[in-house]
């Protein structure tokens, strides 16, 4: 696996940490703008709780990706990274279809590129 691929994987992890921060700690205006949701919807208590819960998942994913970069190497690292990228691609496709098309670019595309690079 090339250094470029590992660097891009680390960027994916940082992206998911950023998403976590927005989902858990950003104000409703930032969340509404980021996720293309109506402000009155994002301002509701239940929506804020659901976004924070989703943020925990994004944070856990980011930490697992970072952790895997340090504990695995060789073929095992390649397998773990491919698994994470496939997972992100599935989630990105679903989010792109159900939430906002921006997710196709922000999550699905980078994960797809990294998956392809992992086979080169």
UniProtKB/TrEMBL annotation:
Stored InterPro entries: DUF1304
Stretches assigned to coiled coil: none
Pfam families linked to this entry: DUF1304
Protein name: Integral membrane protein
Record has Membrane as a keyword: yes
Chain segments annotated as transmembrane: 56-72, 79-97, 103-119
Keywords, in A-Z order: Membrane, Transmembrane, Transmembrane helix
